[in-house]
Specification:
alpha/beta, Rossmann fold
């Protein structure tokens, strides 16, 4: 058993312990955020993986305590007819980070090597060409342009994917998560596995490596992901001036609550 493998039979992490560890990591992410702004860093984090692997929850854990102006989430819909006529990378590159930004792609240009390939949305020639060109694109247009590229693949088991899909089908609060591609993808498990293997073989490079995140245990996966991202971007605490709250000026004072009387209020049901 490798040192990164969870011991068999390990107890499920309690919600209390998870939240405690999550708060620590999110505090460090706030420090990282200030460092990114201070140093003018540019970072891209790509999240890919099987359907229902837990990308959304992991991204939420990463972003819920930081500024959306610094940690920008990009989750693009299916391309329009106009976008289909553009260079393939064009619609992704317009979202690349400026100084002081971390851009998070919830699925990315790797759609071409995954869902587009498996579901027949691109030709075999387009797939083969992108498989060959992607590593060089990432090297010259991203990494050598000064952008740090972090690529994370979330991997869930067949049993866990089945369980999560069934939960989505039965729970009204989760049914929105079922996309038109989810159920067909369930029947193409091994096609997606082969597409993943081809992608990793071609694009797991020294300048832009892939990091595989086992995600059957959602809590541990989220914590491991945040800790790993923090380890990949060297940062320090940025000194901040003490902030003093100014007193309210009484110039022009009046009863500013009386002026609201008679207005429509939101009913207090809780």
């Amino acid at each position: 058993m490798s040192k990164n493998t969870k011991p068999e039979g390990e107890k499920k992490m309690t919600g209390k312990k998870y939240l405690k560890e999550l708060r620590k990591l999110q505090g460090e992410l706030c420090k990282l955020q200030e460092w990114v702004k201070y140093k003018g860093l540019r970072v891209i984090i790509v999240f890919e993986g099987r359907d229902a692997a837990g990308k959304g929850g992991t991204i939420k854990a990463l972003t819920e305590r930081v500024s959306p102006r610094v940690f920008r989430l990009v989750a693009l819909p299916a391309p329009s007819d106009r976008e289909k006529s553009q260079l393939y990378m064009q619609r992704y590159m317009q979202h690349f980070p400026a100084k002081g930004e971390v851009v998070i792609f919830d699925r990315s240009w790797y759609n071409r090597l995954g869902v587009e390939h498996v579901m027949g949305f691109c030709s075999k020639e387009q797939h083969a060409r992108f498989l060959e060109n992607c590593p060089q694109m990432e090297k010259y247009l991203v990494v050598e342009a000064g952008i740090q590229l972090i690529k994370i693949w979330l991997e869930s088991s067949d049993k866990e994917q089945k369980r999560r899909f069934e939960a989505r089908m039965e729970d009204p609060l989760r049914q929105w998560k079922l996309s038109p591609m989810d159920l067909p993808s369930r029947t193409k498990w091994f096609e997606y596995s082969r597409a993943r293997d081809l992608m990793l073989t071609a694009t797991d490079t020294k300048w832009a490596p892939w990091y595989i995140l086992p995600s059957d245990d959602k809590k541990r996966a989220r914590l491991n992901c945040l800790a790993h991202i923090l380890s990949l971007i060297p940062y320090k605490k940025v000194p901040r001036e003490k902030v003093k709250l100014p007193n309210r000026s009484m110039k022009g004072a009046y009863d500013d609550q009386a002026s609201l009387r008679g207005r429509k209020l939101v009913p207090e049901k809780y």
